[in-house]
Write a structure and sequence with these properties.
The complex is a heterodimer of chains A (370) and B (263).
Chain A lengths: L2 H4 L7 H8 L4 E4 L6 H6 L3 E4 L9 H6 L6 H12 L7 E5 L3 H14 L3 E5 L7 H22 L5 H26 L7 H11 L4 H15 L9 E7 L5 H9 L2 E7 L17 H11 L10 H15 L3 E7 L3 H16 L4 E6 L7 H14 L3
Parallel strand pairs in A: 1-2, 1-3, 3-4, 5-6, 5-7, 7-8
Helix pairs in contact in A: 5-6, 7-12, 8-10, 9-11, 11-15
Chain B lengths: L1 E7 L3 E8 L2 E9 L4 H16 L6 E8 L2 H6 L5 E2 L2 H12 L5 E5 L4 E6 L5 E6 L8 H11 L3 H8 L13 H13 L4 H23 L5 E4 L6 H11 L3 E2 L8 H13 L4
Parallel strand pairs in B: 1-4, 4-5, 6-9, 9-10
Antiparallel strand pairs in B: 1-2, 2-3, 6-7, 7-8
Helix pairs in contact in B: 3-9, 4-6, 4-7, 5-7, 7-8
The chains are: A alpha/beta (370), B alpha/beta (263).
Amino acid sequence: MTTLQRQSTDLETDYVRDWKKKGGKVLGYACVATPVEIIEAAGVLPYRIKAFGHPDTELGDAYLARFNCRFCRSCLQLGLEGSYDFLDGLVETNGCDHLRGMFENWQHVKEYDFFHYLKVPHFLRDDSLEYFTEELALMRDAVAAFAGREITDDDLRAAIDTYDEVNAKLKRLYALREQVPPAVSGAEVMELVCTGSSMMGADFAAMLDEVLAEKENARVSGYKARLIIMGSATDEVDLIADIESTGALIAADALCFGSRAFWNREGEDGDPLRLLAERYLGHLFCPRMFTDYDRRIAYILDTAERAGVDGAIITYNKFCDLHGVEAVSQRMDLEKAGIPVLVLEKDYGSQADTGRIKTRVQAFLERLGK
Amino acid sequence: MYYGGIDVGSLTAQAVLINGKGIHAYKSMGVKPNPVQSAKAVVDMLIQEENVPWSQVKFCVSTGYGREQVQAEGLSQDNMSEISCHGMGASFLVPEARTVIDIGGQDAKVIRIGPGGELIDFVMNDKCAAGTGRFLEVQARTLGLSLDELGTVSLGAEKVLELSSRCSIFCETEVLHYLQRGHSKADIAAGVNRAMAERVAALVRRVGLEKEVTMSGGVAKNVAVRAELERMLNVRLIKYGADSQIVGALGAALMARRMGGNS
């Protein structure tokens, strides 16, 4: 059994249970713009909210509407039904309105003792970086009060160093997937990114060492086409596995539970909060960032070229305003660059839709002559 | 030597046998709960009624939503998506076709094909039943008409009633509302067929219309939907010289002939 397969896709993993048993605190967050280094620097476990298990959404529907994205409704369902009762608090961002609705209804019903709203600017400019640095200082103070300890600049630098290590190892994993033949599949990579988002950085880095050693000489064979996938927030390992079951290999991604969570988060600065502001706001490849489309598409095209893909899949959840709109420009620009595109609009976690998704992907591969 | 195509859809299953000259035989039937049972039943029917030993079928391709299970059961040697198969089948029947509108029981697809029937682009409806055969089925049942009658009855309409909802279930309440207010079945049926055509025309516009245009699947038999589509898209939908429901299975058989070494 490989390291990857041993990792659970349960919400409350053994790792989290052990952490809690030792008296550790856990803070939930959902948006990729949340600097986990600040949470780690306080000795608290940052936990990225996921909707594993594809639950029903009756409770979520009672507080949100059917025209909210189902990923958010599913997360809310899990929060309200008690699956996330191991969390000690939540950090919300203005990532998108659906996400905000999810968090605020959750807080309204469950009334966590700790709830922090991190305001993330929608522009990347000098003044927005300054603003975001100030927001991060507020977050540091709030998390420090919650953890009952000070967060020093040295604490922050240590956490930043840890995530530099994590990010470098994730890049190595991505290189193993991009190589021909690849050493790891797209589903395995997403599983690992999801698993790591429930762990302290140092432990994730250690697990990545184990995975990299295991996978170094592994080879994935039998695939017909190499694809890049991009789109809205999804932790659906099953979706990637279903796509790959048709003969596609997800050789690269620009996903929120994927490369967008760690790519190019580099930079040097004396002030750790300013450095975090630059790293997160400066590498936030998300359509919630206004006037930043050119950088996003350049990042996608670079990734596609590096991985030598035959085609692209743009996938988004129904009612995802950000990615639903951006899909149009992305499709046009990818096709202009000679990369055929399949647009997959889907309901989050809908297993009943698997057959229809596979039909479209299979037809796309046939269209590519694969 | 024969080549076979088996198409197991959501409502009907088809089997087609071709030889070097063209279509040798075909059969169509309503599906059973399990796609493998459906495939076996329609193949048995074809073998018995046409007296063709299956051992003479050199290569068979399955398509439709049960395609993988049919292959896993050994009834076919390979499987292809119904999107490619409909394109290939339509191109065989109408070589000049470049756009294929395929409306089945739960799917609507618009397929752009090249001169050899190769797949160029496609668009498929999402999960919603609007624009699929199921939509017509629900509204026909509410009107107390058979699916076949839905098209013909509407030809006698004095005016086409508007159905504003895109959702099949909400549309059903609109149909009921019109019935309760005493509107004629013909006028309501005409509204149903127009609503259906509007949804499909929107799909066609998404993929882009290129002449010539054909229509396959069960809904292609509804004369009113065809007429509405022709009016909305300003095209003539070329009719096949064969049953519109066998186009997918025919495409699968053509794929089988190609894979089996005889293009």
